[in-house]
Amino acid sequence: QVQLVESGGGLVQAGGSLRLSCAASGRTFSSSSMNWFRQAPGKDREFVASVSWTGRAAYAESVKGRFTISRDNAKNTLYLQMNSLKPEDTAVYYCNMAADWGHGTQVTVSS
Fold first, then answer.
1. Is the pLDDT of residue 26 over 80?
2. Rounded alpha-carbon distances, angstroms, from residue 91 to 19, 53, 100
3. What is the pLDDT of residues 11-22, one digit of tens each?
4. Euclidean distance between CA atoms 51 and 12, whole angstroms
């Protein structure tokens, strides 16, 4: 059974930065594609970024150029560096591997 535990969320002013982490256990992390999703109040969960097991990254248009996804296979950890944050980035951010999800970490960006 896969366990995914997110951390690093918080309250930040617009223009600020946060770094999210997702610690994974229970499956071969290094051979799995990993994703970040987010869900704002009253909205559907949406894709944010992904990174393949080879390190190839993809981003939603809304975060391209501001967010960077990365992984450390030695530590079984996924990261999301978020810069130039905007109030519309406010959401619960979830780590995802295949059918497994973490419980999420809250990111709040004040204007």
1. no
2. 14, 26, 19
3. 999 999 999 999
4. 25
